[in-house]
Amino acid sequence: MSEHIVALLIIFMVIVLPLWLLLHYITRWKQTRGLSGEDERSLVELWELADRMEERLHTLEEIIDDREPPRGRRS
């Protein structure tokens, strides 16, 4: 009887347990494959900040261009 239990334990540990773990982690990987809601919000916030910085940079370039004469020309 104990030989049968040992054989069943070995079969469980060699076949069932690795397959069970593999399927478990595949399921976990599929659940976390996309971005979370918090990650999406952070990405949107960063995108908006980058747009605002780009607008500010263009404004500064326009101000500097209006104040400074173009270089390379001597009057």
From TrEMBL:
Q: Does the keyword Membrane apply?
A: yes
Q: Which UniProt keyword terms apply here?
A: Membrane, Transmembrane, Transmembrane helix
Using the record, list the residue span of the signal peptide; answer none if the entry has no such feature. none
| Cross-referenced Pfam families | PspB (PF06667)
- Under which name does UniProt file this protein? Envelope stress response membrane protein PspB
- Transmembrane stretches in the record are 6-26
Species source reads Natronospira elongata
Q: Which gene codes for it? A: pspB
Q: What's one GO BP annotation on this UniProt entry?
A: phage shock
InterPro entries named among the record's database cross-references: Phageshock_PspB (IPR009554)
